[in-house]
Design a protein that fits this description.
Number of helices: 8
Radius of gyration: 18 Å
Largest sheet: 5 strands, parallel
Shape: globular
Distance between the termini: 21 Å
Strand content: 15-25%
Order of helices and strands: EHEHEHEHEHHEHEEHE
Oligomer: single chain
């Protein structure tokens, strides 16, 4: 089974490509979290988690969901993380998660995909994004091949900087930046409600046909990236930037 969490489509794309090669069933963690579905996950042979990198670790909301859900114990588990640059020391924390769930940890893969964190960085134009995705496909296929053959993903070399990013910067990132306060919809908003539908944490609702954000944001960027008229902004940081989503 391939389970994925994805704000703008990068991890979903990887999950689908892995599933095509491995023959595994594909399941959306977004849908599970949105429905508050913590029922037991049944998997026969293996689990593959395709997730984005949030400040050099897997998203906290995904980790919390995994911790709450019952899975088969002693089942093999692979993690594949999308990132705009690299994943830091994320495998250390994934190994700890696997130990707590009694998974047989089979490694963590890193796949560089187009940047989507519009709240802080520039995102690529469509042509550049397509090139990044095509360049990523051989690595996705290599990882998928290892999974299909039940082989571990080799460990990456971890530097002192990697360890600092995942241990020190990650909690500071959540404490200081992961808030929905800066989101707003301008006058171009049509009140279509797509942002409400896309939010995995049910953190967006329509009031007087305009979206309003609550306090449970995970900064997945789904609301701002999928707005059909680019009416949603994140303060001044998103102004003039192209929106990115992977819809291959």
């Amino acid at each position: 089974m391939v389970l994925y969490f994805s704000g703008t489509g990068n991890s979903r794309y990887i999950a689908k490509r892995i599933a095509d090669i491995s023959g595994d069933e594909i399941v959306s963690i977004n849908d599970k979290i949105k429905k508050q579905d913590f029922s037991k996950v049944e998997a026969d042979t293996r689990l593959v988690f395709a997730v984005p990198t949030y400040a050099w670790r897997i998203p906290k909301t995904v980790e919390q969901w995994i911790q709450r859900v019952d899975f088969p114990q002693e089942i093999k588990a692979w993690f594949v993380m999308t990132c705009g640059d690299e994943i830091g020391n994320a495998p250390k924390y994934i190994k700890r998660l696997c130990e707590g769930k009694h998974f047989l940890y089979m490694g963590t893969g890193q796949v560089v995909m187009p940047e989507n964190y519009i709240a802080m960085f520039a995102v690529p134009k469509p042509a550049t994004a397509q090139k990044i995705i095509r360049n990523a496909e051989p690595e996705i296929d290599r990882i998928a091949g290892l999974i299909a053959e039940e082989k571990p993903i080799p460990d990456r070399k971890v530097s002192a900087v990697d360890r600092m990013k995942s241990s020190v910067v990650n909690p500071a990132f959540y404490r200081l930046f992961v808030k929905a306060d800066a989101f707003f919809a301008n006058d171009a908003c049509m009140g279509c409600g797509l942002c409400v539908k896309k939010c995995p944490l049910n953190n967006v609702e329509l009031k007087d046909k305009k979206p309003v954000w609550g306090k449970q944001c995970t900064h997945c960027m789904a609301c701002i990236s999928y707005c059909p008229v680019q009416a949603i902004e994140y303060g001044k940081k998103s102004a003039g930037k192209p929106r990115y989503r992977c819809e291959l």
